Amino acid sequence: MTLDKNDLKQIREIVREEVREVVREEVHDQIITEVPPIIEAKILPLKQKIDQIWDSLNEDLISNLTMIEKLSKKVKEMDSRIKKLELSK
User: 36-71 as b/e, with b when 16 or more CB fall inside 10 Å?
Assistant: First the structure.
């Protein structure tokens, strides 16, 4: 059995397609194993910064809520004093 040019072309194309498939699988596996650490290395500092900002905002919020609570008590005290003064007149 001899192979003509068309047979060789078909064989070549089949081999190329098989090689492409193997390369795709290898590259895919490599991306899956190598990219996440790269992404994680870039995302981790951002996540830490976001966590710091979030913690700071929470501290500010707690501080503001505490201040509002104190002011609310003062307003109630003042309101109570005003009512007492009005009643005493």
Answer: eeeeeeeeeeeeeeeeeeeeeeeeeeeeeeeeeeee
Closest to 70 in 3D by CA, of 62, 80, 82, 58? 62
Report the mean per-residue pLDDT for the chain: 87
Residue 29 half-sphere exposure toward CB, CA atoms < 13 A: 6
Domain range for 74: 1-89
pTM for this entry:
0.44
User: Coil, strand or helix: which one is 88?
Assistant: helix
**What distance lies between CA 55 and its chain's CA centroid?**
16
Q: How many domains does the chain have?
A: 1
